Write the structure tokens for this entry.
Amino acid sequence: KGKGKKQAKAATKDVKQAAVLGAGIMGGGIAYQAAVKGMPVVMKDIAQPALDLGLGEASKILAKGMQRGKVDAKKMAMTLNNITPSLEYSSIKQSDLIIEAVVENPKVKGIVLKETEETVADDAIICSNTSTISINSLAESLDKPERFCGMHFFNPVHRMPLVEIIRGEKTSEDTINAVVAATLRMGKTPIVVNDCPGFLVNRVLFPYFAGFSKLVLDGADFAAVDKVMEKIFGWPMGPAYLLDVVGMDTADHASGVMADGIPERMQKIDNDPVTVLYGSERLGQKNGKGFYNFG
Ligand code: NAD
């Protein structure tokens, strides 16, 4: 009985200090989201310009909030004060929730996760924000895989409500409960899913993108498809526009992983419009040109 009580307490223990590894699009967004909800967070990267970008992103979101009257000077100061940028591992020693958001490369992630485990306390929880790498395979780089799971935010983090919490084969129930509690504290909606290619959202989304690509290859006009899906069917945006938001590099990589993982549901085609656009450096919104041109 007593043990159960202790476990329940551990499972809901409040995060005192989070850490985000990688201050890119996602790391910057996750650090902002923790900070704006009052959770102190260390944002660690390997390069000062990356940290500057991450902090700049947080300031931009806050400035927009101020313009709309949703953020006041006090909230802006509190949020920025809650983010501690750093280039040193020693800065995450006290962190009890670590969210890895470095480049989507299994080798780099494996090294970063191992270095993290060597730095933090034994009961700290470690998560990965990977979109496509198996949580079970990443867990192999850790001595204590039971304290590890996926914590998959969506881009842009401050606007997308969902966080997928991915349970690896060795993830403990306490870890899942603590990450669910942290997600709620960050103002997001958690769902717990098992480890599989694409988890839940990308497992639905990428076969949809593949269907769209096939339509375009069969002669459909991408803008006409978007118009149907958006204006008539009623979705917030059509597939071509959504691919411009996701980015052709990210989409091309992820669709390859998904096609390998669920070949019965989608195939990777060589002249896929996403691959062709990526090849001609039309990456989408991030470089101003994709299916559409952005001013
Ligand atoms: P990004 O390229 O914008 O940022 C990656 C950051 O990691 C860079 O700032 C880089 O300097 C840093 N980095 C590299 N090696 C490091 C190390 N050893 N230690 C600390 N920092 C290091 O990438 P991103 O788009 O933010 O993606 C990060 C992760 O989030 C990836 O796993 C990606 O799959 C996932 N993800 C991305 C999206 C998206 O739409 N971009 C959405 C959900 C999840």
About this structure: The beta strands are 18-21, 41-44, 83-86, 97-100, 125-128, 148-152, 162-167, 189-194. Confidence is low (pLDDT under 50) at residues 1-11.
